[in-house]
Protein backbone atom coordinates (compact mmCIF):
# COMPACT_ATOMS: atom_id res chain seq x y z
CA UNK A 1 0.00 0.00 0.00
CA UNK A 2 1.47 3.36 -0.98
CA UNK A 3 1.89 5.76 1.90
CA UNK A 4 -0.18 8.67 0.65
CA UNK A 5 -2.84 8.75 3.40
CA UNK A 6 -0.65 10.82 5.68
CA UNK A 7 -0.23 13.44 2.96
CA UNK A 8 -3.98 13.81 2.55
CA UNK A 9 -4.58 14.03 6.29
CA UNK A 10 -2.12 16.91 6.61
CA UNK A 11 -3.15 18.67 3.41
CA UNK A 12 -6.91 18.34 3.59
CA UNK A 13 -7.76 17.43 7.15
CA UNK A 14 -9.93 14.48 6.07
CA UNK A 15 -10.59 12.27 9.07
CA UNK A 16 -9.83 8.68 8.19
CA UNK A 17 -11.63 5.91 10.03
CA UNK A 18 -9.77 3.28 12.01
CA UNK A 19 -9.43 -0.02 10.26
CA UNK A 20 -10.41 -3.33 11.80
CA UNK A 21 -8.84 -6.70 11.16
CA UNK A 22 -10.17 -10.19 10.66
CA UNK A 23 -13.02 -11.06 12.97
CA UNK A 24 -13.69 -14.59 14.06
CA UNK A 25 -17.12 -15.90 14.85
CA UNK A 26 -17.66 -18.03 17.94
CA UNK A 27 -17.99 -21.71 17.16
CA UNK A 28 -17.11 -24.64 19.39
CA UNK A 29 -16.88 -27.12 16.52
CA UNK A 30 -15.28 -25.36 13.57
CA UNK A 31 -13.44 -22.11 12.93
CA UNK A 32 -12.10 -20.39 9.83
CA UNK A 33 -8.49 -21.16 9.06
CA UNK A 34 -7.68 -17.44 9.02
CA UNK A 35 -4.40 -17.30 10.95
CA UNK A 36 -2.61 -16.16 7.80
CA UNK A 37 -5.26 -13.64 6.75
CA UNK A 38 -4.15 -10.02 6.53
CA UNK A 39 -6.13 -7.18 8.09
CA UNK A 40 -6.65 -5.57 4.70
CA UNK A 41 -6.68 -6.72 1.09
CA UNK A 42 -6.88 -5.04 -2.30
CA UNK A 43 -9.00 -6.10 -5.26
CA UNK A 44 -6.11 -7.64 -7.20
CA UNK A 45 -5.48 -10.13 -4.40
CA UNK A 46 -7.03 -13.46 -3.43
CA UNK A 47 -7.26 -15.67 -0.37
CA UNK A 48 -8.04 -19.28 0.40
CA UNK A 49 -11.17 -20.14 2.32
CA UNK A 50 -10.89 -23.09 4.62
CA UNK A 51 -11.90 -24.29 8.08
CA UNK A 52 -10.21 -25.90 11.06
CA UNK A 53 -11.64 -29.09 12.52
CA UNK A 54 -10.23 -29.32 16.07
CA UNK A 55 -12.70 -32.02 17.12
CA UNK A 56 -11.80 -34.20 14.10
CA UNK A 57 -15.39 -34.57 12.96
CA UNK A 58 -16.07 -36.49 9.76
CA UNK A 59 -16.84 -33.69 7.32
CA UNK A 60 -18.90 -34.33 4.22
CA UNK A 61 -18.70 -30.88 2.59
CA UNK A 62 -18.36 -27.18 3.29
CA UNK A 63 -20.36 -24.43 1.56
CA UNK A 64 -18.69 -21.00 1.53
CA UNK A 65 -20.47 -17.65 1.49
CA UNK A 66 -19.22 -14.08 1.15
CA UNK A 67 -21.65 -11.37 2.28
CA UNK A 68 -24.38 -14.06 2.31
CA UNK A 69 -23.78 -14.98 -1.33
CA UNK A 70 -22.70 -18.56 -1.93
CA UNK A 71 -19.44 -18.71 -3.89
CA UNK A 72 -18.75 -22.44 -3.87
CA UNK A 73 -18.47 -25.74 -2.02
CA UNK A 74 -15.66 -28.17 -1.26
CA UNK A 75 -15.44 -31.74 -0.06
CA UNK A 76 -13.94 -32.28 3.36
CA UNK A 77 -11.19 -29.85 4.34
CA UNK A 78 -10.27 -28.88 0.79
CA UNK A 79 -9.77 -25.11 0.51
CA UNK A 80 -11.60 -22.80 -1.88
CA UNK A 81 -9.64 -20.02 -3.70
CA UNK A 82 -11.48 -16.70 -3.62
CA UNK A 83 -10.56 -13.73 -5.82
CA UNK A 84 -11.52 -10.28 -4.54
CA UNK A 85 -11.62 -8.39 -7.84
CA UNK A 86 -15.42 -8.25 -8.10
CA UNK A 87 -16.19 -7.44 -4.46
CA UNK A 88 -17.21 -4.00 -3.27
CA UNK A 89 -14.89 -2.16 -0.91
CA UNK A 90 -15.40 -2.62 2.81
CA UNK A 91 -15.81 -5.59 5.11
CA UNK A 92 -16.28 -9.00 3.54
CA UNK A 93 -18.27 -11.25 5.86
CA UNK A 94 -17.12 -14.84 5.39
CA UNK A 95 -19.25 -17.81 6.35
CA UNK A 96 -18.71 -21.53 6.10
CA UNK A 97 -21.58 -24.01 6.53
CA UNK A 98 -20.02 -27.33 7.50
CA UNK A 99 -21.98 -30.54 6.87
CA UNK A 100 -21.01 -33.53 9.04
CA UNK A 101 -22.66 -36.65 10.46
CA UNK A 102 -26.08 -35.56 9.18
CA UNK A 103 -25.75 -32.19 10.91
CA UNK A 104 -24.40 -28.79 10.00
CA UNK A 105 -22.63 -25.96 11.79
CA UNK A 106 -21.44 -22.48 10.81
CA UNK A 107 -18.11 -20.70 11.16
CA UNK A 108 -17.60 -17.00 10.40
CA UNK A 109 -14.79 -14.55 9.87
CA UNK A 110 -14.22 -11.16 8.25
CA UNK A 111 -11.64 -9.27 6.20
CA UNK A 112 -11.56 -5.71 4.87
CA UNK A 113 -11.19 -4.86 1.20
CA UNK A 114 -9.64 -1.42 0.63
CA UNK A 115 -8.93 0.72 -2.42
CA UNK A 116 -5.86 0.20 -4.56
CA UNK A 117 -6.36 3.56 -6.29
CA UNK A 118 -3.87 6.33 -5.58
CA UNK A 119 -5.96 9.55 -5.54
CA UNK A 120 -4.83 12.56 -7.49
CA UNK A 121 -4.56 15.96 -5.87
CA UNK A 122 -6.77 18.21 -8.00
CA UNK A 123 -6.70 21.98 -8.25
CA UNK A 124 -9.32 24.52 -9.18
CA UNK A 125 -9.52 27.95 -10.77
CA UNK A 126 -12.25 30.43 -9.77
CA UNK A 127 -14.02 31.56 -12.93
CA UNK A 128 -16.69 33.77 -11.31
CA UNK A 129 -17.99 34.71 -7.88
CA UNK A 130 -21.75 34.97 -7.38
CA UNK A 131 -23.95 36.10 -4.47
CA UNK A 132 -25.38 33.54 -2.07
CA UNK A 133 -28.14 34.06 0.48
CA UNK A 134 -26.63 33.98 3.98
CA UNK A 135 -29.97 32.65 5.22
CA UNK A 136 -29.54 29.48 3.13
CA UNK A 137 -28.41 26.48 5.17
CA UNK A 138 -27.38 24.69 1.98
CA UNK A 139 -28.07 20.96 1.71
CA UNK A 140 -28.69 20.36 -2.00
CA UNK A 141 -27.60 22.27 -5.11
CA UNK A 142 -28.34 21.33 -8.72
CA UNK A 143 -28.84 22.80 -12.18
CA UNK A 144 -31.89 21.87 -14.22
CA UNK A 145 -32.51 23.37 -17.67
CA UNK A 146 -29.79 25.98 -17.10
CA UNK A 147 -31.38 27.18 -13.86
CA UNK A 148 -30.01 26.69 -10.35
CA UNK A 149 -32.06 25.01 -7.62
CA UNK A 150 -31.22 24.84 -3.94
CA UNK A 151 -32.58 22.85 -1.02
CA UNK A 152 -31.87 23.97 2.52
CA UNK A 153 -32.22 22.68 6.03
CA UNK A 154 -33.44 24.54 9.07
CA UNK A 155 -30.54 26.49 10.48
CA UNK A 156 -29.37 29.58 12.28
CA UNK A 157 -27.37 32.28 10.55
CA UNK A 158 -24.23 33.84 12.01
CA UNK A 159 -26.42 36.79 13.03
CA UNK A 160 -28.74 34.48 15.00
CA UNK A 161 -31.68 34.38 12.56
CA UNK A 162 -33.58 31.09 12.45
CA UNK A 163 -34.34 29.85 8.94
CA UNK A 164 -36.84 27.25 7.76
CA UNK A 165 -36.21 24.59 5.15
CA UNK A 166 -37.16 25.38 1.58
CA UNK A 167 -36.72 24.40 -2.07
CA UNK A 168 -35.78 27.37 -4.24
CA UNK A 169 -35.26 28.16 -7.91
CA UNK A 170 -33.29 31.33 -8.61
CA UNK A 171 -30.95 33.36 -10.81
CA UNK A 172 -27.47 32.59 -9.53
CA UNK A 173 -26.04 35.75 -11.08
CA UNK A 174 -28.33 38.12 -9.19
CA UNK A 175 -29.92 36.02 -6.45
CA UNK A 176 -33.41 36.80 -7.77
CA UNK A 177 -35.87 34.11 -6.61
CA UNK A 178 -38.11 32.65 -9.31
CA UNK A 179 -39.97 30.15 -7.15
CA UNK A 180 -39.85 28.71 -3.65
CA UNK A 181 -41.56 26.01 -1.59
CA UNK A 182 -41.27 26.19 2.20
CA UNK A 183 -41.27 22.82 3.95
CA UNK A 184 -43.43 22.13 6.96
CA UNK A 185 -41.55 22.90 10.17
CA UNK A 186 -41.32 19.21 11.09
CA UNK A 187 -39.02 18.59 8.13
CA UNK A 188 -35.33 19.41 7.80
CA UNK A 189 -34.68 19.67 4.07
CA UNK A 190 -31.73 17.81 2.55
CA UNK A 191 -30.44 16.81 -0.90
CA UNK A 192 -32.28 17.19 -4.21
CA UNK A 193 -31.95 15.79 -7.71
CA UNK A 194 -33.87 15.98 -11.02
CA UNK A 195 -34.70 12.82 -12.97
CA UNK A 196 -37.53 11.87 -15.34
CA UNK A 197 -38.91 15.42 -15.09
CA UNK A 198 -39.32 14.98 -11.33
CA UNK A 199 -37.73 16.74 -8.39
CA UNK A 200 -36.67 14.38 -5.62
CA UNK A 201 -36.00 15.89 -2.20
CA UNK A 202 -34.79 14.17 0.95
CA UNK A 203 -35.37 15.12 4.57
CA UNK A 204 -32.91 14.50 7.37
CA UNK A 205 -34.22 12.27 10.16
CA UNK A 206 -37.87 11.83 9.18
CA UNK A 207 -37.01 8.99 6.75
CA UNK A 208 -39.26 10.82 4.31
CA UNK A 209 -38.73 12.00 0.76
CA UNK A 210 -40.79 14.13 -1.62
CA UNK A 211 -41.34 13.88 -5.37
CA UNK A 212 -42.51 17.00 -7.21
CA UNK A 213 -43.41 17.61 -10.82
CA UNK A 214 -40.44 19.53 -12.20
CA UNK A 215 -42.62 21.87 -14.25
CA UNK A 216 -45.51 22.62 -11.89
CA UNK A 217 -43.81 21.88 -8.54
CA UNK A 218 -46.93 19.96 -7.54
CA UNK A 219 -46.18 17.37 -4.86
CA UNK A 220 -46.89 14.04 -6.54
CA UNK A 221 -45.71 11.60 -3.90
CA UNK A 222 -44.31 11.30 -0.41
CA UNK A 223 -42.18 8.19 0.12
CA UNK A 224 -40.46 6.47 3.03
CA UNK A 225 -36.84 5.37 2.85
CA UNK A 226 -36.41 1.68 2.18
CA UNK A 227 -33.68 1.42 4.82
CA UNK A 228 -33.32 2.72 8.36
CA UNK A 229 -31.08 5.61 7.37
CA UNK A 230 -30.89 9.39 7.45
CA UNK A 231 -31.31 11.50 4.34
CA UNK A 232 -28.27 13.57 3.32
CA UNK A 233 -27.03 14.17 -0.24
CA UNK A 234 -28.53 13.20 -3.60
CA UNK A 235 -27.63 12.98 -7.31
CA UNK A 236 -28.40 10.76 -10.32
CA UNK A 237 -26.80 9.30 -13.45
CA UNK A 238 -29.91 9.57 -15.63
CA UNK A 239 -31.10 6.09 -14.63
CA UNK A 240 -30.52 5.69 -10.91
CA UNK A 241 -30.50 8.00 -7.91
CA UNK A 242 -27.56 8.01 -5.51
CA UNK A 243 -27.91 9.20 -1.94
CA UNK A 244 -25.92 9.42 1.28
CA UNK A 245 -26.86 8.74 4.88
CA UNK A 246 -24.04 10.30 7.06
CA UNK A 247 -21.85 7.17 6.85
CA UNK A 248 -19.31 6.04 4.24
CA UNK A 249 -22.11 4.58 2.10
CA UNK A 250 -23.48 5.87 -1.18
CA UNK A 251 -26.80 4.13 -1.88
CA UNK A 252 -28.23 3.44 -5.33
CA UNK A 253 -32.00 3.83 -5.61
CA UNK A 254 -34.56 3.04 -8.30
CA UNK A 255 -36.44 6.34 -8.92
CA UNK A 256 -39.54 4.48 -10.12
CA UNK A 257 -40.01 2.46 -6.95
CA UNK A 258 -37.81 4.41 -4.49
CA UNK A 259 -36.30 1.07 -3.44
CA UNK A 260 -32.67 0.83 -2.39
CA UNK A 261 -30.80 -1.50 -4.76
CA UNK A 262 -27.31 -1.59 -3.28
CA UNK A 263 -24.50 0.65 -2.07
CA UNK A 264 -20.76 1.26 -2.25
CA UNK A 265 -18.45 2.17 0.62
CA UNK A 266 -16.23 5.20 -0.02
CA UNK A 267 -12.54 4.54 0.59
CA UNK A 268 -9.49 6.74 0.23
CA UNK A 269 -6.73 4.17 0.01
CA UNK A 270 -6.86 1.98 3.09
CA UNK A 271 -9.36 4.10 5.02
CA UNK A 272 -13.08 4.65 4.67
CA UNK A 273 -14.36 8.22 4.43
CA UNK A 274 -17.36 8.73 6.69
CA UNK A 275 -19.97 11.50 6.63
CA UNK A 276 -20.20 11.65 2.82
CA UNK A 277 -22.63 14.50 2.21
CA UNK A 278 -23.86 16.49 -0.82
CA UNK A 279 -23.38 14.74 -4.18
CA UNK A 280 -23.05 15.75 -7.81
CA UNK A 281 -22.71 13.52 -10.88
CA UNK A 282 -20.03 14.97 -13.18
CA UNK A 283 -18.77 13.12 -16.27
CA UNK A 284 -19.34 9.66 -14.84
CA UNK A 285 -17.92 10.40 -11.39
CA UNK A 286 -19.51 11.45 -8.11
CA UNK A 287 -18.19 14.64 -6.54
CA UNK A 288 -19.01 14.75 -2.85
CA UNK A 289 -18.64 17.04 0.12
CA UNK A 290 -17.38 15.51 3.36
CA UNK A 291 -19.25 16.85 6.38
CA UNK A 292 -17.24 19.43 8.34
CA UNK A 293 -14.30 19.16 5.91
CA UNK A 294 -13.19 21.80 3.42
CA UNK A 295 -12.55 19.24 0.72
CA UNK A 296 -14.36 17.55 -2.15
CA UNK A 297 -13.73 13.89 -2.98
CA UNK A 298 -14.11 12.50 -6.51
CA UNK A 299 -15.50 8.97 -6.27
CA UNK A 300 -15.85 6.08 -8.71
CA UNK A 301 -19.57 5.21 -8.36
CA UNK A 302 -18.94 1.57 -9.30
CA UNK A 303 -16.37 0.84 -6.60
CA UNK A 304 -16.49 3.68 -4.06
CA UNK A 305 -12.78 4.39 -4.55
CA UNK A 306 -11.71 8.02 -4.15
CA UNK A 307 -9.86 8.95 -7.34
CA UNK A 308 -9.20 12.61 -6.64
CA UNK A 309 -9.36 15.20 -3.89
CA UNK A 310 -9.98 18.95 -4.11
CA UNK A 311 -8.61 21.07 -1.27
CA UNK A 312 -11.20 23.86 -0.94
CA UNK A 313 -9.82 25.43 2.24
CA UNK A 314 -8.64 28.47 0.28
CA UNK A 315 -12.26 29.63 -0.12
CA UNK A 316 -12.57 30.29 3.61
CA UNK A 317 -10.61 33.56 3.38
CA UNK A 318 -12.90 34.78 0.57
CA UNK A 319 -16.20 34.53 2.45
CA UNK A 320 -17.93 36.11 5.40
CA UNK A 321 -19.07 33.06 7.41
CA UNK A 322 -18.71 31.54 10.83
CA UNK A 323 -16.40 28.58 11.60
CA UNK A 324 -19.35 26.18 11.75
CA UNK A 325 -20.73 27.33 8.37
CA UNK A 326 -19.26 24.39 6.51
CA UNK A 327 -18.62 23.85 2.83
CA UNK A 328 -21.65 22.13 1.32
CA UNK A 329 -23.21 22.33 -2.13
CA UNK A 330 -21.89 21.17 -5.52
CA UNK A 331 -23.69 21.83 -8.80
CA UNK A 332 -22.42 21.17 -12.32
CA UNK A 333 -23.64 23.46 -15.10
CA UNK A 334 -23.40 21.46 -18.36
CA UNK A 335 -23.92 24.62 -20.41
CA UNK A 336 -20.84 26.40 -19.06
CA UNK A 337 -19.02 23.16 -18.09
CA UNK A 338 -18.22 24.72 -14.74
CA UNK A 339 -18.85 23.64 -11.15
CA UNK A 340 -20.62 25.80 -8.57
CA UNK A 341 -19.70 25.39 -4.90
CA UNK A 342 -20.88 27.12 -1.76
CA UNK A 343 -21.51 26.47 1.92
CA UNK A 344 -24.04 26.77 4.69
CA UNK A 345 -24.94 30.45 5.20
CA UNK A 346 -22.08 31.57 2.95
CA UNK A 347 -22.39 35.00 1.37
CA UNK A 348 -20.76 33.81 -1.87
CA UNK A 349 -20.97 31.00 -4.38
CA UNK A 350 -17.93 30.17 -6.50
CA UNK A 351 -17.94 29.04 -10.11
CA UNK A 352 -14.82 26.94 -10.68
CA UNK A 353 -13.01 24.77 -13.20
CA UNK A 354 -11.09 21.71 -12.01
CA UNK A 355 -7.81 20.30 -13.32
CA UNK A 356 -5.05 17.98 -12.13
Q: Can you offer a commentary on this structure?
A:
This protein has one helix and 33 strands. With 356 residues, the chain is mainly β. The protein folds into two domains: 20-113, Immunoglobulins (Immunoglobulin-like, Sandwich), CATH 2.60.40.10; 120-355, 6 Propeller (Neuraminidase), CATH 2.120.10.30. The strands form nine sheets. Strands 27-28-29-30-10-33-32-31 form an eight-stranded mixed sheet, with no helix packed on it. The model has no long low-confidence stretch (mean pLDDT 92).
Structure, briefly:
This protein has 356 residues and is an all-beta fold.
Supply the key terms.
elongated, 2 domains, five-stranded mixed beta sheet, eight-stranded mixed beta sheet, mainly beta, Immunoglobulin-like, 356 residues, Neuraminidase, 1 helix
Q: Using DSSP, what is the number of strands?
A: 33
CATH architecture of the largest domain: 6 Propeller
- Unreliable spans: none
Beta content comes to over 45%
Strand order of the largest sheet: 27-28-29-30-10-33-32-31
Shape: elongated
CATH class of the largest domain: Mainly Beta
CATH topology tier name of the largest domain: Neuraminidase
Radius of gyration, CA atoms, in whole angstroms: 23 Å
Helix content: under 10%
Tally of helical segments: 1
Distance between the termini: 22 Å
Q: How many structural domains are formed by the residues?
A: 2
Question: Residue-averaged pLDDT, rounded?
Answer: 92
CATH superfamily of the largest domain: TolB, C-terminal domain
Task: Profile the largest sheet.
Answer: 8 strands, mixed
By secondary-structure content and strand pairing, the structural class works out as mainly beta
